[in-house]
Amino acid sequence: MGYSISDRESSLFVLSGEELTLPFAEISALASAYSNSSKIRRYGSRIVTSSISESDIIQRITDRAAYCRFGGILVSKSRDLASLAAPVEKNPTQGNKKFAVASLSLSLEQCGQIGAEIQSKTKLGVSLEEPDYVFQAESIPEGFVLGLSRSGYKEFHWRARRPRARTFFLPSAIYPKLARALVNLCRVREGEFFLDPFCGTGSLLIESSLMGMKAIGVEITRWIARGARLNLDGFSLPFESTIRGDSSFSLPFSEIDGMATDIPYGRASSTKGMTTKEILDGFLRSASACMHSSALRKKFCVVMHPSTVNLEEIIENQGNSFQLQEQHLLYVHRNLTRAISVLERTAK
Predict the structure, then answer these.
(1) Position 94 pLDDT exceeds 80
(2) Is the domain of 70 the same as that of 171?
(3) 237 and 196, same domain (yes or no)
(4) How far apart are CA 327 and CA 324, in angstroms?
(5) Same structural domain, 172 and 295
(6) What tens digit of pLDDT does each residue of 111-124 get?
(7) How far is CA 33 from the centre of its chain?
(8) For all residues of the chain together, what is the average pLDDT?
(9) What's the predicted TM-score (pTM) here?
(10) Given Cys at both, which of 40, 209, 225, 306 links 219, Cβ 3.0 to 4.6 Å?
(11) Does residue 154 sit within a domain?
């Protein structure tokens, strides 16, 4: 027997399986970036519904999210599997389209059962390899959910952008999946200005440029800045993605829409003899001068740093220009756990 979808549930997102707080935080950040009034609900560790109903926004969020396996409209919720596909109807405009049923939690037999009912209702063909439509069926604590993507399977291209596949490589480079999540957490939209004040080899600039942002990178070591430019050119990214050899303690910008960065630390990075705490202190003082929130638009700075650094103490000593909204921990090895801190610029 089915049950109704509330006005807060119009879209469905299926997160990746990492046991992290990061996937849900990323999808929440993207939802709020495109809709200030969006409401989201979480079912278990991987299923998220949203009040966002606009198909183009659902597609943007799905394409952007690094830790999202599926995104589409929410077709139905049901307490039993047999009635899950009941709301599916034939669309006269679908022509000779083909579909597939995918799932991360149901068996092949269960997916086949759902697929048979969808086919009988819609007369669509079936293609497991290259479907035009993908119905995503998942179990939740209350029963089951069914979503629909009209763009086929989501494609990932992480390997093509991995650090060693780029023109310029350093061991400290961030992998594209994590880099994309850091950018998404700062809630910058297409056409807006994104800044990475410690850009290194350009990992975050590559991802932000691919998502349509005007990316600016600051790198104090000029030969690394030139390498980052080579990496951007290697992917034929828009020219507005520029690298400046400069100090991150005196950022020459008046209005940035969002920032994300990996603070340099350890022997593989150039710290110019400064401690991580000193670098964070100087950077945040400069960052507060070129990014301003308002009642209509909140702006965010995302910083990845060793978890041993007390970021809240640094913020408090500076007069609370930023507020720590959330923090996510990534274990690297026994001597290093990274913290991803999401800071909101306080409104004046």
Answers:
(1) no
(2) no
(3) yes
(4) 8
(5) yes
(6) 999 999 999 999 99
(7) 11
(8) 91
(9) 0.93
(10) 225
(11) no
The token pair that represents 134 in the structure block: 């993908």
| Measured distance CA(134)–CA(46) in Å, rounded | 18
Take residue 202 and report the two structure tokens written for it: 């350009």
Residue 144 sits in a domain whose CATH number is 3.30.2130.30
Its domain, for residue 221, covers 159-345
Question: Which residues, listed in sequence order, are joined to residue 48 by a DSSP beta bridge?
Answer: 13, 42
Of 313, 42, 312, 36, the closest CA to residue 189 belongs to: 36
DSSP letter for 30, please: H
Whether residue 144 is found in the same domain as residue 261 = no
Instruction: Render 217-268 in DSSP notation, one character per residue.
Output: EE-SSHHHHHHHHHHHHHTT--TT-EEE---TTS---S--SEEEEE---STT
Strands of the sheet with 214-218, listed across from one edge: 242-244, 214-218, 193-196, 258-262, 300-306, 336-345, 322-333
How far apart are the C-alpha atoms of 217 and 200, rounded to whole Å? 8
pLDDT of residue 5: 55
Cα 91 to Cα 24, 95, 102, 122, 217, distances in angstroms: 33, 8, 21, 7, 47
Confirm whether 336 is domain-assigned.
yes
Can you give the pLDDT at residue 213? 96
Question: Which tokens sit at 318?
Answer: 């500076």
Q: 260 and 114 in one domain?
A: no
Q: Residue 283 and residue 311: Cα distance in Å, rounded?
A: 12
**CA-CA distance, 340 to 63, in Å (whole number)?**
22
Place of tokens 């409104």: 347
Q: What is the CATH number of the domain that holds 324?
A: 3.40.50.150
d(CA 213, CA 194): 6
Number of domains in the chain: 2
pLDDT tens for each residue of 22-42? 999 999 999 999 998 889 999
Q: Kindly state whether residues 117 and 168 are assigned to the same domain.
A: no
